[in-house]
Amino acid sequence: MEMFWESVVVITAARYSVVVLCTLVFLAIFEVVTSYKNWEEIKNGNLAVAMATGGKLFGIATIFRYSIEHNDTIFQSIGWGTFGFILLLLGYVIFEFLTPSIKVDEEIGKGNKAVGFISMMISIGLSFVIGASIL
């Protein structure tokens, strides 16, 4: 039985399951933080929300990619992934704060593709910086 738990397939399935669960939790947190309803807006064809949400998804996945690569246990990966998510969320708040002439959340909710695109790129860019910092 010990060899079963050390199997690459089992370890991969376990990490995959944990990352999917964490991603769902983190996206739910983003849903609370934003003024619009992500999935409702995406269903209605709001490309700006789709880009911003896609950037967040890519960002979370990238952070976990580095977290898994640099940590031996699932618990360490979850810890660093969660810390990375907090930094990504903080980056979103800072983006909103540093652009007082644009209400980022409001513009994305209204379908402003330019703001949705820059939001996506910020999430992707920050995820690489955060991920590269994970030990």
Explain what the structure shows.
The longest helix is centred in the first third of the chain and has 26 residues, at 8-33. The mean pLDDT is 91. This protein has one domain (2-133). α2 crosses α4, α4 (47-70) packs antiparallel against α5 (74-98) and α4 (47-70) runs parallel beside α7. The protein is 83% helix and 0% strand. It is mainly α and 135 residues long. The chain has seven helices and no strands. It is elongated, with a radius of gyration of 16 Å.
Distance between the termini: 31 Å
Please provide the ordered H/E string of secondary-structure elements.
HHHHHHH
| Poorly predicted sequence stretches spanning 5 or more consecutive residues | none
Structural class: mainly alpha
3D shape: elongated
Instruction: Summarize the main sheet.
Output: none
Number of helices: 7
Record field, number of beta strands = 0
Mean pLDDT figure: 91
Question: Fraction of residues in helices?
Answer: over 70%
Number of domains: 1
β-strand percent reads: under 5%
* Cα gyration radius (Å): 16 Å
